[in-house]
Design brief:
- The protein is α+β, with helices and mostly antiparallel strands.
- The chain folds into two domains: 144 residues, 60s Ribosomal Protein L30, Chain: A (2-Layer Sandwich); 171 residues, Phosphoribosyl-aminoimidazole Synthetase, Chain A, domain 2, CATH 3.90.650.10.
- It has ten helices and 13 strands.
- Helix 2 runs parallel beside helix 3 and helix 5 crosses helix 8.
- The longest helix is centred in the first third of the chain and has 19 residues.
- The chain is globular.
- It starts with a helix and ends in an 11-residue tail after the last strand.
- It binds magnesium ion.
- Magnesium ion binds next to helix 2.
- The site of magnesium ion (MG) has 4 residues, from helix 2.
Length: 336
């Protein structure tokens, strides 16, 4: 079967199966002119949207349909996680080139539904159209959060401890393996590639952090530690110091970097798309929060630096040398 044979409406009917995961409060899902759902007025609504364009964000031959669908939704869920919210409804718009097989499209929706199931998110609609050359996917997600729990980028204060909810730099190593067509012949390397193709949105971690009494600012790591922490310090009007030996680097990234003579700290600073959460926590409540995080998730909340009054971002190495760092993360318009 091809897309031409089933047509746009046949395609929508086909992919809409299994999209309604949480029918409570949903009045209309896919099939009417607009989705309709009720929300609780005690809550703040969060909306985020991400556009994934072939050859800019992904290479169709280097990613399976399942992984592409999974990642398109994951990056949006990560933005809801960064605010501390609960993801609720998703909308998927897709521009399909003629050479895109129906099986590949089906797999995109399978990947999205797999993640949607795990995080209890409905897929409620979107738009479908043709494209001359590239496959383009836009996902928008609606989430909610209690009005006194929202985490923003502008709330860091001098003295705060800076944490990450997971390892940094793995995704960049995975991308390096994919772009250079290096064989993923060990579980270590496969894990790095998975970190790039199927990042785990830290929604539960975001909810946990939002409920900690000492929480201040938060962001997800989509562009790289230096760039994402840069947003926090810039918007909070503060500076930060990072301790190179505390930046969380996985064993997999360490051995990858040792083999290829790369610097793992540089990977963590500049590599994007890890989708961990970076947060800052008031120093008197930080230890308790980190302790509870370990208890709850069976892995550490990694402390890696401090917020300070002096502007700018500085990294200190174990030999006490230090360097000022400028954002080196991904910038679509610089053609990096
Ligand atoms: Mg973000």
């Amino acid at each position: 079967m091809t897309l031409k044979q089933i047509g746009e409406f046949g395609f929508i009917k086909k992919v809409s199966r299994g999209c309604l995961i949480r029918p409570q409060h949903i009045i209309k899902s896919i099939g009417d002119d607009a989705a309709a759902f009720t929300t609780d007025l005690e809550e703040i609504s969060l909306i985020t949207t991400d556009l994934l364009v072939e050859r800019i964000h992904f290479l169709r031959h280097a990613i399976s349909g399942f992984e592409l669908g999974y990642k398109s939704l994951a990056v949006n869920l990560s933005d809801i996680a960064a605010m501390g919210g609960t993801a609720r409804e998703a909308f998927v718009s897709i521009a399909i080139p003629e050479d895109c097989a129906l099986d590949y499209l089906d797999a995109i929706y399978d990947g999205m539904k797999d993640l949607a199931h795990r995080f209890d998110v409905n897929i409620l609609g979107g738009d479908t159209t043709g494209s001359k050359v590239d496959l383009i996917i836009n996902v928008a997600v609606h989430g909610t959060i209690a009005s006194d729990e929202m985490m923003c980028r502008d709330a860091a204060r001098p003295g705060d401890i800076i944490y990450s909810t997971g390892f940094l730099g793995d995704s960049k190593a995975g991308l390096h393996l994919i772009l250079n067509k290096l064989p993923a012949d060990s579980e270590n390397l496969r894990r790095l590639i998975r970190a790039h193709l199927q990042p785990e949105p830290h929604l539960l971690e975001g909810r946990f952090l939002a409920q900690q009494p000492g929480i201040r600012a938060a962001i997800d790591t989509s562009d790289g530690l230096s760039s994402d922490l840069g947003h926090i310090i810039e918007q909070s009007g503060v500076g930060a110091i990072l301790f190179a030996d505390q930046i969380p680097i996985s064993g997999e990234l360490r051995s990858f970097c040792a083999q290829h003579k790369f610097d793992p700290v540089e990977y963590a600073l500049s590599g994007g798309e890890d989708y961990t959460l970076i947060c800052t926590m008031s120093p008197d409540k930080a230890d308790a929060a980190a302790h509870n995080f370990q208890k709850c998730f069976k892995r550490p909340l990694f402390p890696m630096g401090k917020i300070r009054e002096k502007k700018g971002l500085e990294i200190v190495y174990p030999d006490n040398s230090s360097t000022a760092i400028i954002s080196t993360g991904w910038n679509h318009f610089k053609g990096e």
